Amino acid sequence: MTNGYRLDNFTTEIISDIGVHSCIKECLLRKPHCQSINYNTQHFQCGINSRRADDIEFDGVQDYNSIFDNVWNASRETLGNCKDAMCSPLQRCVTMKSNNVCISTACPKGFYGKEGQCLPCHVGQYNDGSKQWCSYCPPGSYNDQTGSSFCQPCPPGTYQTKLGSLTCSKCSVGSYQDNTGQTGCKLCPVGMYQANTGQGSCIPCDTGTYQHNSGSTACSQCRVGTYQSNTGQASCLSCAPGSYQDTVGMSSCKPCQPGSHQSHWEQTQCTACTRNWYQDQPGQSFCKQCSGYQCVNTAKTQCIGLTAIQYSWCTSKQFVGYMRFHQCKQHCLNLGSSCHGVIYPRNYENWCYWCPSAQQAYSGNSNYWDLTMCV
Fold it and tell me: What SUPFAM superfamilies does the database record attribute to this sequence (predicted)?
């Protein structure tokens, strides 16, 4: 060859400086040799006995067979008028700075050129027809077929981080991927979970449950004293005063029943009204006090007033009624035996006494009950 360099392993020359001379490139397609037809038309050089090409971006098959490609010059007179008819079969014409060259670029989509013939791209690779070599499938895609012109994007629930993959990997538990062609998965957000692999979405926590961590595989039940009425929540809510919850994993709180109350948050039970106090409504945070000559019933749901005969003999709230023992005792029992301030008589007494105030003794008739024992 005139003014060319033919070596045992490589041929060197800057294509733009060749002019009418010829340059044959022999690049073995094994790491890290340059690929024979992957070059920049303005700045390409295979150095003498080098193992790489300068000023190119390697993008081709690395691990398979060798490719032998000839790059021939067209005459200088044809510069600017490059036609594929000037080249041999399986080649096309490319205009350089100072000349035209023919390169082997005639293989169809899904194939690459080797020693004058076209071979199918291997699995994990593709050729869309824009080049004459096969490229690795990019991250986020795969190809398990030979001779492909494109790679398949990883479907939802999967991902791929590597080049040239034959398959995609499933998202792990606690994660998901709702898009195609992705290189990673997303963690399930708070209030959601995923217990299975390869999923395209996460599952919201059910009512009565919550999850405050991302990437979770399950939700937790609301503890006693709390609840959650909505799905997909990161926390539970405290039961308000007037209510309680004694069971885990519930979607609501229970109201305090009449005769009871609860004045605090996040409680597991209600408190019964104390003596002479009552509550006739559910879900209350306090009890109401019976007034005057009234006693609370056993259920603590209402106050019962004494009849006019029963308290007509009362003076200054010192005692109730002017009844015989059996009448007074029966009345006290009817009231639930819990009337605050009423003194129950002994068998020989004829009176039911009313305490003016707690622990206050009544002085006077010695037959009266000792009022320091008021209930």
Answer: Growth factor receptor domain, Hairpin loop containing domain-like
